[in-house]
Amino acid sequence: MKFLTEIADFFLPRFCAACNTKLIIEENFVCHQCLSKIHEIDGSQITMLYLRKFRETKIVSDFYVLYLFEKDKEVQRIIHQLKYNHKFLLGKYLGENLGEAISKLVNKWQIDMIVPVPLHPVKRAERGYNQSYYITKGLNKVLNIPVNQRIIRRKRFTQSQTKLDRKAREQNIKGAFALRRNSLIVGKNILLVDDVVTTGATVRECGRLLLRNGANKIFVAAVAIAE
To answer: Beta strand pairing status for 177-179 and 152-154?
Structure first.
């Protein structure tokens, strides 16, 4: 297997999603040097961020995130590759990493279903895929919990949240989602998955919709979070 990988790398070399250097055979998507620079979130930081972004609204029961999203650093470059450079399999790789990290938590949360945050059809057509769906595919591989990307649809096209403050994000995303299959969520504990959580406005809006239509509890998992 190693020999075949070496041959494949010779003809189709792989490059790090963060620094674009050629990967060695033991590396997968991101080189060891870049991985060593990434700020992993610890338990105390997760608790602090939960209190800041989710406790007040009482929509999200708990959440987990792998990395801190820092401007012009490795995680931002990785997410950019995932979203804009057709590196959708990178999403599955990140989802597998996330799945390994939350395997014990998911048992505690008693998750029934994993749901990716949807893209508007126009944006999905432009991009060719929903990056959050590929993250959920990685989660499914590790956790063996069913994924359903047809529970929530984005019914209204919204401007990019990137440059909006918290209040503007809340207004921008309000009423942007609708349910496709109400009956499938009744009484269920649902894990909402996104690539990056910034203010939390998007996952809160999705969670609010799910709870209003009969879901039991909402949990959130993401690859990265912005402070």
So the answer is: antiparallel
pLDDT, one tens digit per residue, over 188-200 is 999 999 999 999 9
Q: Which residues contact 217 (CB under 8 A, 6 or more apart)?
A: 61, 109, 189, 190
Question: What does the block give as tokens for 47?
Answer: 């608790």
- How far is the C-alpha of 92 from the C-alpha of 45, rounded, in Å? 25
pTM above 0.70, yes or no: yes
Note the Cα 224 to chain centre separation in Å.
7
| Domains (range + CATH), the chain | 1-37 (no CATH), 39-225 (3.40.50.2020)
Q: Which long-range contacts link 79-83 to residues 24+ away (Cβ below 8 Å)?
A: 79/195, 79/196, 79/223, 79/224, 81/17, 81/18, 82/17, 82/131, 82/134, 82/195, 83/127, 83/131, 83/195
